[in-house]
Amino acid sequence: MMKHAFLSAAIAIPILAAAGAAVAAEVTVRGQEILVDGRPFPIRGASAEGRLAALKALGATTVRSYGDDPGPLLAEAGRLGMKVIAGLWLEPPRRGFDYRNRALVEAQLAAFRTIVERYRDSPALLAWGIGNEVEAELTDTSLVWPAIEEAARLVKSLDPRHPAMAVLAEAGDGKVKKIRALAPSIDVLGVNSYGDALPSLPKRVREQGWTGPIVVTELGAIGQWQAGQTPWGARIEPTSTEKAERLRRYLAAIKSETAGHILFLWGQKQEVTPTWHGLLLPGGEWMQASEVMAEAWGGHTPGGNRAPRVAALRLPAGPVAERGRPIEARLDASDPDGDKLTVKWTLLAESTDLKKGGDRESVPPDHSAAIRAEGSYARIDSLPPGNYRLFAVAHDGRGAAATANVPFQVR
Fold first, then answer.
1. Secondary structure class of 297 (helix, strand, coil)
2. 102-119 vs 71-80: helix axis angle to the nearest 10?
3. Is the dihedral of CA 354, 360, 362, 363 positive or negative?
4. C-alpha span between 156 and 350 (Å, rounded)
5. CATH code, domain with 350
6. pLDDT of amino acid 22
7. Is 69 contained in some domain?
8. In the chain, pLDDT over 90 holds for what percent of residues?
9. Does the pTM of the predicted model rise above 0.85?
10. Integer Cα distance of 378 and 360 in angstroms
11. Sheet holding 377-380, edge to edge
């Protein structure tokens, strides 16, 4: 199973000025708990690069990074009283990195040393995240586990006050047993999990003998690999309302079974679509998932506002059209606060730049000039044969939005 990450080459990370001279908190592991200065610390938050004040207002305590210089994130989180799981990017073999090449490995470890020595005293630091799904997409993972162990040993020798956490792509294929046997320096197990696999994750990890803390280091309503698809292979993305309803169930299911959880992604990225995994839109608008996060974490959305809801986005004539035939679409959306909605329509070619493991994808060509829209109704009169996806975003004018899209084909 594959996930999504901000990708950085660990050997090319620019290092900023050191964080302040304040002394870091003591972070320890006790059984299945993570303690900060002796008190259980509730990990709840998201993978994030910014806009942390809004995330904290929802009730978040923690943010996760993947491998970029953590200095700016530590500084912003520290000002807000939040903690950071700082990622150290172990380059995955699926991208061509050879862990038998000691020169490459030593360069990667040297970059880790620089980062750990520079930021180990940050008051905002919670833990070091050793890699992200390094084992994904491999038939032979035998070089991965010793690489994780070597990095973890180095990090702990430099900074014994913060735990080392490995991050796996789900828990199948005996991965947890391999971590236990071959990377014993790992203190906290992070696992990325999505959709209906989430509720059973803690049980599946414990069955492999892990007795320490479990953190769900990425989670989402559904991954594209789990979604249904059209006859031509386009994955069907749930609406923002459907995603929120799923998230509510999943957060409730794992709340008492883990040391915490990190949602993916407090931001926006192109992965299959521009809306699949982001909790925010490019303009910063938040969606119903933020309400679910606030409910679960004891926080609040801006001004107590509630996001628009989507009942459906429909193509009345169906998802396949002959060339020259008009394509009509209708969005059924409402706002629980009675706010007036405005709808933005976008038409993109179906993405063909589909990558593995969350690698960056390019946004497909935009055909929005073909749309004629009025409110919740849109008409497309002329498109060449091909596969397309129509997006509708309903804005409430108060910083919240709802999203839906539908794939269709022109023959």
1. helix
2. 30
3. positive
4. 46
5. 2.60.40.10
6. 63
7. yes
8. 91
9. yes
10. 30
11. 309-314, 327-334, 377-380, 371-374
